[in-house]
Amino acid sequence: MGKRADILERFGKRVRELRKEQGYSQENFAYACGLDRTYMGGIERGERNVALRNIEVIANTLGITLAELMDGV
User: pLDDT per residue over 12-54, tens digit each?
Assistant: First the structure.
């Protein structure tokens, strides 16, 4: 069995998937979340250890629960 990707990478991939499904550009999504575009890019690349408050903001902006956001992570 292969090595499972780091939690930050898995979370970033999940955010990117959901953002794209809803038709947001990274810049527009960051703006909707009230977060900096470069910070959002870092999240999606698995470079940022995201605070729980920001995880909640991301879920709320996507219109999903925290459980739905974390599904598969």
Answer: 999 999 999 999 999 999 999 999 999 999 999 999 999 999 9
CA 30/CA 27 separation, integer angstroms: 5
Question: 10 Å Cβ neighbour count for 3?
Answer: 5
Angle of helix 52-62 versus helix 7-21 axis, rounded to 10: 20
- Which tokens belong to 45? 């690349």
Q: How far lies 6's CA from each of 33, 38, 56, 60, in Å?
A: 24, 20, 20, 24
Give the predicted TM-score (pTM) of the model. 0.91
Beta carbons within 8 Å of 26's beta carbon, 6+ residues apart: 19, 37, 40, 41, 44
CB count, 10 Å around CB of 22? 13
